[in-house]
Amino acid sequence: MRVITWLRLRLFRHEHGQDLVEYVMLMALIAVVAVLAIQFLGGMINETLYNRFVSQFNFL
């Protein structure tokens, strides 16, 4: 019984890997938001830049 109690206290007291997991989850969230933003805005940005480029050379 003492061994089980000791193991349980030892496992719940040491949280060394918790910070790493939190940082990985935060990085994953940032990556997902970045991918979604690029997919949503990418077409509009590409079209706008293309139209500006073409309009600059339209007078030739």
Mind explaining what this structure looks like?
The chain is mainly α. It has one domain (15-57). The chain is 90% helix and 0% strand. It has helices at residues 2-13, 16-57. The N and C termini lie far apart (88 Å). The mean pLDDT is 81.
Short description, anyone?
The protein is mainly alpha-helical. It has helices spanning 2-13, 16-57.
Summarize the helices and strands and which ones pair or pack:
Layout: H1 2-13, H2 16-57
The major β-sheet equals: none
Element string (H = helix, E = strand): HH
User: What's the Cα radius of gyration?
Assistant: 26 Å
List low-pLDDT spans: none
Shape descriptor: rod-shaped
Distance between the termini: 88 Å
Q: Helix count, per DSSP?
A: 2
The overall strand count is: 0
Tell me the fraction of residues in β-strands, as a range: under 5%
Question: How many separate domains?
Answer: 1
Portion of residues in helices? Answer: over 70%
> What is the structural class?
mainly alpha
Q: What is the average of the pLDDT values?
A: 81
Task: For the structure shown, list the relevant keywords.
60 residues; mainly alpha; rod-shaped
